[in-house]
């Protein structure tokens, strides 16, 4: 099967400031990749390049074997927590159905297939009970689950998450990563985060991004990689033994 | 009060108030929830250029207004999304540019401009039957487009980036919404005038947000508030012999402010 994401030699700059420099990335089916790096390191830009929302100055992007503008509708995208208007008058149910919008023309109503898919997605994330709540009344973790349900409702082949742990307390985070862990048996997941501790246990691969992308085909990162990315010494803390991520140091 | 209804101009005024409230209830909800009050104000004021064109060409100023306000909406939408000029700066510039065009054209028009004040401050008592038909037609267009694009507009207003990723053209949808705002302005102009439109577009919708969490119900409520306030304002204008546009806004603002004072005084419940 073809690669889910294939980026070759991507360069992006804004107003003469280089944001991405020669980034290469391959994501295969059922990979779970975390991309970490400092703020302003180009993480969100990279996601937007993958989705075709930003055109790179140089390099080629292939998403699900095609041009991102055509294929991004088959991607489940969970944008940053604050990107949507949370005081907006919609219910959880409305938000999840929004995920089916790309299959609708003007005047067309949602049908039973759409409603079944929405029910299914809400069940997967454990939020079916709260479907009639207004979105702003939910906690951070619950909102994040709703946005994941919205991205799952089209049975995507790839889930892209932008800083998913923002605004979630640590107990919720554990549940949240366990949900991702459950999903990864079926689809590829790419997650952008600066939360190093949570990343370690569940992901298969880690890349560091700070303009340049440092990436190994496993989930060990060395303190050297991190220092190059963050441009300052980073203290590495290893987690639970079976899931050791970092080399002993 | 009933004897007032015998007059044609009063009947037209009431019809105009209802027709205007329908458009401003529906579109006002989008203006409020998408937080595009400033760009709506910009389109409103820039449309004055269209009034100027109407006078200069010697046609009904509303026929200058319709194309000009649609054009301003599209230009403003494109300039604020596509250029590197900050959105509020771009809106501010186009806001004044449209007015400047209107002022020059009216100055160049021979004779004096009759009922210019009507377009600036509104006068619901001078709406002729032909304008009522025009308002009816515009309401029909607005209701049809919102019915057809209800889901799409909801997604656009809630989460623009997600809408784009879903493969919809967020930019086209946004421009369509701005065009509907432009048409609403045409509908409202005789009722309250360019200067006061933004209040009519925002207050009923903002008030309705406090009573429901449902976008569609917000629209119905905003229409009811709009009809109530504009008729109340119309009555006050008769009682106090004051300009109707201003009394409508005054009636609305008074209730709005009292509502929020009352809300602010209530003990806060942790949510």
What does this structure look like?
The complex is a heterodimer of chains A (249) and B (271). With 249 residues, chain A is of the alpha/beta class. Chain A has helices at residues 43-50, 68-71, 92-98, 112-124, 140-152, 170-183, 196-202, 223-230; strands at residues 5-14, 17-27, 32-36, 58-63, 75-78, 158-162, 188-193, 205-210, 212-215. Chain A has a domain at 5-85 and 156-243: Rossmann fold (3-Layer(aba) Sandwich). In chain A, 30% of the residues lie in helices and 23% in strands. A 6-stranded mixed β-sheet of chain A has the order 5-6-7-3-8-9, sandwiched between helices. Chain A has a 3-stranded antiparallel β-sheet with strand order 2-1-4, covered by helices on one side. The longest helix of chain A has 14 residues, at 170-183. Mean pLDDT of chain A is 81; it is low at 235-245. With 271 residues, chain B is an all-alpha fold. Chain B has one domain: ABC transporter involved in vitamin B12 uptake, BtuC (Orthogonal Bundle). Helices cover 79% and strands 0% of the residues of chain B. Chain B has helices at 8-33, 37-46, 48-57, 61-82, 87-108, 116-121, 129-148, 150-158, 160-165, 170-192, 197-209, 215-240, 244-265. The longest helix of chain B has 26 residues, at 8-33. The model of chain B has no long low-confidence stretch (mean pLDDT 91). At the A-B interface, α3 of A face α8 and α9 of B.
Chain-wise SSE layout:
The complex is a heterodimer of chains A (about 250) and B (about 270).
Chain A (H helix, E strand, L loop, with lengths): L4 E10 L2 E11 L4 E5 L6 H8 L7 E6 L4 H4 L3 E4 L13 H7 L13 H13 L15 H13 L5 E5 L7 H14 L4 E6 L2 H7 L2 E6 L1 E4 L7 H8 L19
Parallel strand pairs in A: 3-7, 3-8, 5-6, 6-7
Antiparallel strand pairs in A: 1-2, 1-4, 8-9
Chain B lengths: L7 H26 L3 H10 L1 H10 L3 H22 L4 H22 L7 H6 L7 H20 L1 H9 L1 H6 L4 H23 L4 H13 L5 H26 L3 H22 L6
Helix pairs in contact in B: 1-7, 1-10, 1-11, 1-12, 2-4, 2-5, 2-11, 3-4, 3-5, 4-5, 4-10, 7-10, 11-12, 11-13, 12-13
């Amino acid at each position: 099967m073809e690669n889910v994401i294939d980026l070759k030699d991507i360069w992006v700059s804004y107003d003469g400031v280089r944001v991405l420099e020669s980034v290469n990335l391959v994501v295969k089916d059922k990979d779970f990749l975390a991309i970490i790096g400092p703020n302003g390191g180009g993480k969100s830009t990279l996601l937007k390049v993958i989705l075709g929302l930003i055109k790179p100055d140089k390099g080629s992007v292939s998403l699900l074997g095609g041009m991102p503008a055509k294929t991004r509708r088959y991607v489940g995208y969970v944008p940053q927590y604050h990107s949507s208007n949370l005081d907006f008058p919609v219910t959880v149910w409305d938000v999840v159905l929004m995920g089916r919008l790309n299959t609708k023309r003007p005047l067309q109503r949602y049908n039973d297939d759409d409603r079944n898919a929405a029910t299914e997605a809400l069940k997967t994330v454990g939020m079916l009970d709260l479907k009639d709540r207004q979105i702003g009344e939910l906690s951070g973790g619950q909102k994040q689950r709703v946005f994941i349900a919205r991205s799952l409702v089209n049975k995507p082949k790839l889930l892209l998450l932008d800083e998913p742990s923002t605004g979630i307390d640590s107990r919720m985070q554990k549940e949240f990563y366990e949900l991702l862990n459950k999903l990864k048996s079926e689809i590829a997941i790419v997650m952008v985060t600066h939360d190093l501790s949570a990343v370690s246990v569940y992901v298969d691969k880690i890349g560091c991004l700070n303009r340049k992308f440092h990436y190994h085909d496993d989930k060990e990162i060395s303190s050297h990689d991190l220092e190059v990315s963050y441009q300052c010494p980073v203290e590495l803390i290893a987690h639970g033994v079976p899931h050791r991520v970092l080399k002993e140091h | 009060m009933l004897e007032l209804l015998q007059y044609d101009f009063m009947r037209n005024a009431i019809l105009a108030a209802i027709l205007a409230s329908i458009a401003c209830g529906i579109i006002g909800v989008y203006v409020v929830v998408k937080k595009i009050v400033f760009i709506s104000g910009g389109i409103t004021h820039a449309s004055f250029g269209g009034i100027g064109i109407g006078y200069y060409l010697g046609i009904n100023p509303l026929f200058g207004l319709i194309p000009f306000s649609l054009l301003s909406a599209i230009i403003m939408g494109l300039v604020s999304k596509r250029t590197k000029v900050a959105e509020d700066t771009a809106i501010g510039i186009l806001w004044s540019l449209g007015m400047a065009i209107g002022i020059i054209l009216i100055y160049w028009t021979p004779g004096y401009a009759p009922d210019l004040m009507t377009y600036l401050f509104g006068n619901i008592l001078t709406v002729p039957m032909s304008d009522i038909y025009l308002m009816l037609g515009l309401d029909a267009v607005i209701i049809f487009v919102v019915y057809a694009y209800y889901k799409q507009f909801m997604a656009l207003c809630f989460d623009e980036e997600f809408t784009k990723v879903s493969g919809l053209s967020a930019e086209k949808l946004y421009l369509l919404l701005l065009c509907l705002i432009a048409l609403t302005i045409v509908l409202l102009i005789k009722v309250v005038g360019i200067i006061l439109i933004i209040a009519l577009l925002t207050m009923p919708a903002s008030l309705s947000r406090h009573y429901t969490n449902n976008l569609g119900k917000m629209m119905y409520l905003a229409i009811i508030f709009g009809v109530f306030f504009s008729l109340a304002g119309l009555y006050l204008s008769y009682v106090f012999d004051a300009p109707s546009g201003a009394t409508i806004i005054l009636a609305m603002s008074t209730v709005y402010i009292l509502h929020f004072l009352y809300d602010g005084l209530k003990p806060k419940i942790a949510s």
